[in-house]
Amino acid sequence: MQLTARQIRARIAAAAQEAGTSKALATAAGMSESRVSKSLRSGAHVPDSLLAAAGMWRDDQGDVRLVGDPGPARVQILVVQATGVAGVTAAIALASAALGREEPPS
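Now predict its structure.
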């Protein structure tokens, strides 16, 4: 589940409390205390290291999620209609390229 800015702020605050202070959390995340404070105020543009220190991560779409949340499912569909030897050969080449193979399978 994608987290809102409010949820992100709450997680960072909880992580700071667990660490003892926001300065301790900043040290654990490898950043300045002022950067942690900015993230606590806005919940936006939070560095990945701070997300990780607070038990969160950013998916490929830039959404923030809790550690353990696999993120959105991806479905990729390729449909090819081919007839004849040349058409099937072209379809195999297209499918191979889509799968990242350099050469079509023999």
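The domain at 5-66 is CATH 1.10.260 (434 Repressor (Amino-terminal Domain)).
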